[in-house]
Specification:
It is a single chain. With 988 residues, this protein is mainly α. The protein contains 43 helices and two strands. It folds into four domains: 161 residues, no CATH class; 96 residues; 242 residues, no CATH class; 199 residues, Tetracycline Repressor, domain 2, CATH 1.10.357. Strands 1-2 form a two-stranded antiparallel sheet. Keywords: Coiled coil. This is Retinol dehydrogenase 13.
């Protein structure tokens, strides 16, 4: 298109009287009968109510204004009737000759039409026959042939549906403007403003037409200067605010128009102030119609004049029309790139409106799109890119709607249009991706083939749609007289569809995708495979119908693979990628999948059973003699039955599928164990918060608060407690949970032995495979180990800090150390140990008691180091403390019948290391503390020591531990040091 604007106007010798741009009646009728609605405009909405007719008349005004010449000579106007009265072939009148000096381009004679250079470049043929009498769309009657426009200007008026009176008024207005503003160019005028000043209501045949004309011009001013100006407005622009007020007022109260109107003078002041702005600050012209996207809407109306109103074809006078349209560019801010884009859209839109039968228009649109593609690579103007994206997206959207289901769109009768539709759709996609997409530019090194990717998408989508249709047809073919399974019928239909694809569509699509047939059959293979999987998944046993379906599937698969292999002989990988996309329909795989579904159902059922039964489980120790939870026993019974049922299945691949089953059973057992320990909490759930440090003052009110019972414990008890008031987290219940996990862990070995025995007895198992099978319930094994440890610790710390918290915090060593010794705690621990010993399984009993021992040792140490201000110890109390701890330690030794002595010694080592601090004098403790603090804080001096952090790791070598011994030391030295060093209070 670029070179066409650089070529001279066609030579008069090339005119041919045999081509006049009109179709024969039959052709026009054919176009009319297949016409379709126009596509929605791809340009952004203007935001103001301007109809197509409004925009068309405004565009015509711009065209006429731009086409007139400038200079000292006045513009003369010849009424259209005078020109038409002479007839199409008459010589121009004197008046017409006078006019030709001022508007030669508009008045160029159309007495003949020649072969258009532009049509030739676009691949369009010139019309070769005249329109007959009374032909459809001619607008004439049977009395005679329709009058043919005598000039390019009249042709454009007719094409743009401008009435002769309106045309006369426009030209008269331009004459007046030229007379009053001699030498002023069209691009230096704001036409709506000038027209408003030239005409009054008396210039119109009726008030309604005048009001519509006045409103249109005001809306044009609003759209061009306020909504879509070339140079963006500042919010504080006074001219814009004033213009907005004038226009708003004119809608409510009619604005008086005419040359001497005061309101028009105010309007002119605001309009010219806004129109005179430019990007570079110069004001050599007026910018009112060149703002985006108003300029595109106006220019598109002009481009539509290139197409015959009745036939939709490109007029033979396209070269002359384009010359005139180019004159409007300076006013509308249009350049060659925007023109190419608008013309591409117009060609494509008219192809759609032709009912997709005018293949020449489609070919022309494709040729013009090639120019757009070149333009897109040379500019990154945001407005251009925006409208380019919108336009090409509209084109691609229309084409893809048809190509994504091309089996429904194209057949032998219209297959010739498919090539062009694919081509223009792919070309649009390529520009969108390669020249607009930021993502593509970032990933350019990957050499994305846009055309191949889009065509592959079309093939796969269309084949899936066609497959779904064949599915419905196959279902309707099955009846009592034709009991053939639906999938067998479908297999034959899909084979026929693959042949049609290969012979009809693939030859066209191979232009963009060399493996079009292969992609198609791979898609059909996948679609049928999905249905086959669903069929097999719904089976409960192998039947004759099942065998027939699998045989039909096998034959279809061979046919599809043969097509794929033939299509990919010359490909780089020999078709390996396509074959990999077509996993075989193996009967054995189908059976295996069926068994996997069976396994999944059993495992899911087992998981559901776990959820239901554990919600009802009370963990009552009296439920059975072994003190196991009934649900744990039932769980293992169900798993055993599942294994028996699996080995009774009539399948040849037990060893292959066994890991799937055992993995599912392992996860189910893991779920049981996880739910059994969930909600019990952890040791940290019951550890108390340490009170602030204080100095000793015997007799002060105890403000240390034991940690409140966790709220979740109270809620759980109210929800899960049985009718007899059993607490699911009471000591006996926790012991039953512990036993249940130990029971499951012990039974895992028996399950593994049972599986190996069953595996040896099935016919499908070979000796070497059976011997190599290693069945391990690893998830459950690990969950049991972790769960037992967690429940042991939770039980121990709950008993110590929650159940016996009143003894530790409210009694032990409160007030008089000698009066509140450890005997009370020992008495409370006796029944706890009896319950554990009598309830917990012997394999985990020592672990539970060991955990309790560690928890009580921790509690004992916490009382000494963080027991709150009601406790105070002298050096003499150290002997009592040591004796009490020895008694607590002996409780777990039980004269040799309890825990092993080395285990007790290891657990008591921390307490033993700390107790000597209570025997040391305060002065040595203070010096010890200062030395440790200075060593750990090099910048600290002995006079200013920072408060050591509480680590919880009690040790005679840890500063916080020594400091706490001093805090609970009842003597003046310790109190004075704490007061002086840290100013610790005596009360909390």
């Amino acid at each position: 298109m670029a070179r066409l604007f650089r070529e001279s106007r066609r030579d008069s010798s090339s005119h041919s009287s045999s081509s006049n741009g009109f179709l024969q009646p039959a052709a026009a009728a054919a176009v009319s009968s297949t016409s379709s609605p126009a596509l929605p405009s791809p340009f952004p909405d203007l935001g103001v109510q301007l109809s197509a007719a409004d925009l068309r008349e405004a565009a015509y005004e711009v065209l006429v204004a731009a086409s007139r010449t400038t200079g000292g000579k006045p513009l003369t106007y010849i009424p259209q009737g005078a020109a038409s009265g002479a007839g199409a072939g008459a010589p121009p009148s004197p008046a017409s000759s006078a006019s030709s000096a001022s508007s030669a381009s508009l008045q160029r004679s159309l007495t003949s039409a020649a072969a258009s250079k532009m049509k030739k470049a676009l691949g369009l043929r010139s019309s070769a026959s005249t329109k007959g009498v009374g032909s459809p769309g001619s607008g004439g009657k049977a009395a005679g042939p329709p009058r043919r426009p005598a000039t390019v200007g009249e042709l454009l008026r007719v094409q743009m549906r401008v009435s002769e009176p309106a045309d006369a008024r426009i030209r008269r207005g331009l004459l007046r403007i030229a007379a009053s503003q001699l030498g002023r160019r069209a691009e230096s005028m704001v036409l709506p403003l000038e027209f408003l000043q030239q005409f009054k209501a008396s210039d119109f045949p009726d008030p309604q037409e005048y009001e519509a004309w006045r409103t249109r011009n005001l809306k044009l001013l609003e759209a061009s200067l306020l909504l879509h100006p070339l140079v963006p407005l500042n919010k504080s622009d006074s001219s814009a605010q004033r213009l907005r007020q004038i226009i708003r007022g004119a809608y409510d109260r009619p604005l008086e128009t005419g040359r001497n109107s005061e309101s028009l003078q105010s309007l002119r002041t605001s309009v010219m102030s806004l129109a005179g702005r430019s990007h570079d600050g110069t004001s050599d012209g007026c910018h009112w119609a060149d703002g985006f996207p108003l300029n595109l809407h106006l220019y598109q109306m002009l481009v539509e004049a290139c197409f015959d109103n009745d036939e939709g074809t490109v007029v033979d006078e396209i070269d002359e029309v384009m010359e005139l349209l180019k004159k409007t560019w300076v006013i509308l801010g249009i350049n060659e790139m925007l023109h190419n884009l608008c013309f591409t859209w117009a060609l494509f839109n008219h192809f759609v409106m032709s009912g997709q039968v005018d293949i020449e228009l489609l070919s022309a649109a494709e040729n013009q799109l090639a120019e757009v593609a070149k333009d897109a690579k040379t500019t990154k103007d945001p407005n251009y890119c925006k409208v380019l994206s919108s336009t090409l997206s509209s084109i691609m959207g229309w084409t893809e709607k048809r190509l994504l289901a091309y089996h429904e769109t194209f057949n032998t009768s219209n297959i010739e249009s498919m090539q062009g539709i694919v081509s223009i759709g792919v070309s649009a996609a390529r520009v969108l991706v390669e020249d607009i997409s930021h993502e593509y530019r970032r990933r350019r090194k990957e050499e994305t083939d846009v055309a191949r990717t889009r065509v592959e998408t079309y093939i796969r989508s269309s084949l899936r749609t066609a497959f779904a249709l064949r599915m419905e047809e196959a279902d309707s073919k099955r009846s009592s007289r034709n009991p053939t399974p639906v999938l067998s019928i479908l297999a034959k239909d899909i084979g026929d569809l693959a042949l049609k694809e290969k012979n009809l569509y693939s030859p066209i699509l191979k232009t963009w995708h060399p493996l079009a047939s292969g992609v198609a059959v791979a898609t059909l293979h996948s679609c049928y495979g999905n249905e086959l999987k669903q069929f097999v998944a719904g089976l409960t046993e192998l039947t004759p119908d099942t065998v027939q379906v699998l045989k039909s599937a096998d034959k279809l698969e061979k046919d599809l693979v043969n097509i794929a292999v033939e299509d990919s002989v010359d490909s780089d990988d020999g078709g390996k990628s396509l074959i990999r996309e077509m996993p075989p329909y193996e009967a054995e795989n189908a059976i295996a999948n069926l068994v996997k579904v069976w396994i999944k159902e059993r495992v899911d059922r087992l998981k559901g059973w776990v959820d239901r039964n554990l919600k009802q489980e009370t963990w009552n120790p009296g439920a059975n003699r072994e003190n196991f939870a009934p649900s744990s026993v039932e769980m293992l019974r169900v798993i055993g039955e599942t294994l028996d049922a699996f080995f009774e299945l009539p399948i040849p691949m037990h060893p292959t599928l066994l890991p799937d089953l055992t993995a599912g059973l392992d996860r189910s057992l893991q779920l049981y164990v996880s739910k059994a320990k969930s909600g019990c909490g952890t040791r940290n759930s019951f550890m108390p918060q340490l009170p602030p440090l204080t100095r000793c003052e015997v007799g002060s009110k105890l403000l240390f608060k034991k940690k409140e019972k966790p709220q979740n414990l109270q809620v759980r008890a109210s929800q899960n407690g049985t009718a007899n008031g059993n607490d699911p987290l009471g000591l006996p219940q926790l012991c039953v949970r512990l036993n249940s996990l130990q029971y499951i862990r012990g039974e895992l070995e028996n399950l593994e032995k049972k599986i190996k025995t069953c595996l040896r007895n099935v016919e499908s198992a070979q000796a070497d495979i059976t011997d190599g099978v290693d069945i391990k319930f690893e998830l459950c094994q690990a969950a049991c180990q972790e769960g037992i440890q967690q429940i042991c610790e939770t039980t121990a710390y709950k008993v110590t800090f929650y159940d016996l918290g009143h003894v530790l915090w409210d009694t032990l060593y409160v007030g008089d150390t000698a009066a509140n010794r450890v005997e009370v705690l020992l008495r409370e621990l006796d029944p706890v140990l009896e319950t554990i010993s009598g309830t917990v399984h012997n394999k985990v009993r020592n672990r539970a008691i060991t955990a309790l021992m560690k928890a009580t040792f921790d509690g004992f140490l916490l009382v000494l180091l963080a027991g709150g201000p009601l406790r105070a110890f002298t050096r003499q109390d150290s002997q009592i403390i040591e004796d009490d701890f020895r008694a607590l330690r002996d409780l777990y030794l039980a004269d040799g019948d309890g825990l092993p002595e080395e285990l007790v010694d290891k657990a008591s080592s921390q307490v033993k290391n700390v107790l000597p601090l209570f025997r040391a004098d305060s002065e040595s403790l203070i010096e010890r503390f200062k030395r440790m603090m200075v060593e750990s804080n090099r910048s600290a001096s002995k006079n200013r020591l920072p408060l050591p952090p509480t680590t919880g790791h009690w040790s005679p070598n840890e500063p916080n531990t020594v400091l706490r011994v001093l805090c609970y030391r009842s003597d003046e030295t310790a109190t004075r040091f704490l007061k002086k060093t840290y100013n610790l209070p005596k009360k909390i």
